Every structure is written in C-alpha cells, then in structure tokens.
Amino acid sequence: MRRVQGRERKDPVDKRTIAEPYKIKVVEPLRATTRDYRAEKIREAGYNTFLLRSEDVYIDLLTDSGTSAMSDNQWAGMMLGDEAYAGSRNFYHLEAAVQEIYGFRYVVPTHQGRAAEHITSQLRIKPGQYVPMNMYFTTTREHVELAHGIFYDCIIDEAHDPANPHPFKGNVDLAKLDRLVQEKGRDAIAYLSLAPCVNMAGGQPFSMGNLRQVAAWARRHGIPIIFDATRAVENAYFIQQREPGYAGKPVREILREMMSYGEGCTMSSKKDNLVNIGGFIATNNEEFFVQAKEMVVVYEGLHTYGGLAGRDMEAIARGIYEMVDDAYIASRVRQVEYLGSRLREAGIPIVEPVGGHAVFVDAKRFLSHLPQEEFPAQALAAALYVDSGVRGMERGIVSAGRDPVTGEHRRPKLELVRLTIPRRVYTNLHMDVVAESCIALYGERRAIRGLKMVYEPKKLRFFQARFEPIVP
C-alpha cells in the first residue's frame, strides 16, 4: 500500500501514479515577487486578500469561483455563440444539458449564482419566514435577510468541529428541523436550502441516505427543497467513494439521483460547470418558473439569455457534460486531498476530512494565542501572502458578519483560512509551494499579530473590509 496524489491505493495489481486526465495546451506566466514587496502590498490592501491585485499574487487560492481553466471543447463552443437577443440556440443547448444531467425541466439563465439566489429569495420568502440551511453561506444568507427572511442552521453538530472525522458533515439534523416546525409552525418555513459540499463547514458533503430522510421529512410537511447546487458534483464523488452501495456507480448517475429529491436549484456555474461567468435557476415547479422568467427580465435580461452572452451559455452547456466525467472529478478532488495530506502530515491543524474544493486551515488552533475578536483567520491569510505570495481567504468571524438585530459580531465556531483550488489550473508542485509556506508559518506562528478592523462595509464585509495590525 502506498500514497498516490494524496490518497492510499490498496489495489494489489495497479499501484502506478494516476495522472491528470488532460494535457496542457496554453500556459499563463506567473510573477514571483519579494517578501518586502508583498508586505507593502498587503498593507496597501488593508490586510484583506480580496483587495490585492491579481498581478501581485503568485499562486491564487482565493476562490474556485470563475477561476477554472476551460477545455478546448468549451473554447471552440464559444466561437459558435449565437448573440441573438431572443431565442439564442445556445440557450437551448444549455437547457438540454441541465435537463439531461440535473433532471430539472425548466431553466432560467442568470449572470451568476448570486442573481439566482436573489430571484429565488424574493419570490419564495415572505417577511418573517425561516429558511433552514445545512450551515449558512454568506451570499445565500444575505439574500434571505434582504427578503426579510430568517436563516436557521440545521446542520449536524459535528460540522462545527474541525477535528471531527465524520465522513458526511454536511448532513442535516432532522431533530433540529422538527424543533423548528414545532416552535414556529410549517407555514413559517419558506423552503429548505441544501448545499452539497458545504462551503463554510470545509467543503463537507452530505450522504444520499441523509438526503432521502430529509426529502421524506420535507414531503411530509409540504416544504420544498431547493439545492444550492454549486458543488454538487464533488458531493456526488464523495458519495461514490464513501457511501455503501455507490462504489463503482458513475458520478453522473449519483448527481441525477441527488437532484431528484429537490424541487429545483440555484447554480453558480463558475464552480462545477467549469466556466468563468454564469449561472441559472432550474426547477420542476412551473408556477415558480413563470415568476422567475418575469423577474429575470427586470434584473438580468430576457429569459433566454439572463445577462449572459450566447457564447457563455454554450461554454456552460459543454462544461456541464465535462464535469460529470469520472476521471476528471476524481483528479480534481485528489489534488485537494494531496494538499491536505501534506499539511496534515506536517501537523498543521486543518478541517477533517479534507473537503472537495479547498483545504481549510483551522486558524483557531494555528494561532491559538489570538482571541477571535483579533481576527486570527484574517491575520493568517495576510501572513501567508507575505510569506510566499499565496492568496487564500478568511472564513470566520469576518465572513460571519454582524447579527442584524443586536449589531454584535456573529462568532462562528469555525475560524478558518480557505485554500481554494481552481479546477484544472495548478499542478501538485504548486501545492507543494503552498504546503511549504504553511509549514514555515506554523513554525513561527507566535510572531503573527492580530488585527483590528478600521473600515467595515454594512453588507458582506469580508469583501471590502480593511484592517491594521494591533500594536503590542
């Protein structure tokens, strides 16, 4: 038995290395900078990695959203863009791809997932209604609250413990759902929002068994399930690898089964669908579809383009078919596992098990000398950039924002730095650079100082907030 690209291979016959299922045709040069240069740039950016310029970043692990490398087939498709204002043939290609792979009948394109969340929240939520979620996501909760709804966390408790090895930490706790219905009543719930591979929990999947139980509960209470399907393919891969009865079953079939338990989904195509821009709403509810078409015309564009060029819709359609290739998704998740294994073996505290799109460093344990009000994850992300030019992002108290009622900081149990790996972009040598930087910082972690916030936007503050180091 030996380790290959971050996982153990037990096959006694074939123990050879598994390479990426593609070859590189085009390269983009990377720019290395000095430590002094980076120290000045992070100071100018207010110690917020979102405010750094891309040209000053060496390895960019800020996000996997819109940062994928498209295939030759997708680029070829973009040359076939039908830019007609109405009835573009590329829309019908996108519609057919969603119907075949996801299984939803109706499709409304949007310029990205955030727009799909906005339209869904505005149409489905009445003021004061609750939206249970398997942990919050920043933009999803923001749109719920903008529609005067209330976020309710129904994820299992294990998800809030970064060291817990539970294989499906994205599962829903049915007792929490029962408690909400008992206390507030069924009519107080707008819909159930489920995210495959829960981002804020560390990219953690839910199991198909749990999803079946949740779907039965939802049918019993007449509550629709709406997926945030952004990283559903990665969740399908984990089901294939971890859940009894699914070994050897194609990811494409697992994804289709997952989606069959929901009424619809919102989608940021910038992740699973392997494109740089785009999204959609998909549903089997004809009444909601008609309403969404009307609203998309107001906010996005005609219902057959939704703020996208025809070429973008064509790239999404082709990316949908590419994303469910088993060799591709295995290679994608194995690279994340590879980085996670390097950090784990060096004693770096990370979220376990390693998730599908990123490795999450536990900043609370990494910088145990800093209290949460000194923003340890923000400080660690800034220090990582200064050390090596690697850009990650904070996922902790800054991302959690403030309670809209009390105005106090929300204090999540998880205080994390997300190292998000774009799809088909970097090699494992790049992952080695990231790992070595984290290891070096861990050896001198006591020298990393906390931060104070000196500028705070009212909405989604983590994007634009600015900080300064706390002077001892």
Automatic annotation (TrEMBL):
<dbReference type="InterPro" id="IPR015421">
    <property type="entry name" value="PyrdxlP-dep_Trfase_major"/>
</dbReference>
<dbReference type="InterPro" id="IPR001597">
    <property type="entry name" value="ArAA_b-elim_lyase/Thr_aldolase"/>
</dbReference>
<dbReference type="InterPro" id="IPR011166">
    <property type="entry name" value="Beta-eliminating_lyase"/>
</dbReference>
<feature type="domain" description="Aromatic amino acid beta-eliminating lyase/threonine aldolase">
    <location>
        <begin position="60"/>
        <end position="436"/>
    </location>
</feature>
<dbReference type="Pfam" id="PF01212">
    <property type="entry name" value="Beta_elim_lyase"/>
</dbReference>
<keyword id="KW-0456">Lyase</keyword>
<dbReference type="GO" id="GO:0006570">
    <property type="term" value="P:tyrosine metabolic process"/>
</dbReference>
<feature type="modified residue" description="N6-(pyridoxal phosphate)lysine">
    <location>
        <position position="271"/>
    </location>
</feature>
<dbReference type="InterPro" id="IPR015424">
    <property type="entry name" value="PyrdxlP-dep_Trfase"/>
</dbReference>
<protein>
    <recommendedName>
        <fullName>Tyrosine phenol-lyase</fullName>
        <ecNumber>4.1.99.2</ecNumber>
    </recommendedName>
</protein>
<dbReference type="InterPro" id="IPR013441">
    <property type="entry name" value="Tyr_phenol_ly"/>
</dbReference>
<keyword id="KW-0663">Pyridoxal phosphate</keyword>
<dbReference type="InterPro" id="IPR015422">
    <property type="entry name" value="PyrdxlP-dep_Trfase_small"/>
</dbReference>
<dbReference type="GO" id="GO:0050371">
    <property type="term" value="F:tyrosine phenol-lyase activity"/>
</dbReference>
<comment type="similarity">
    <text>Belongs to the beta-eliminating lyase family.</text>
</comment>
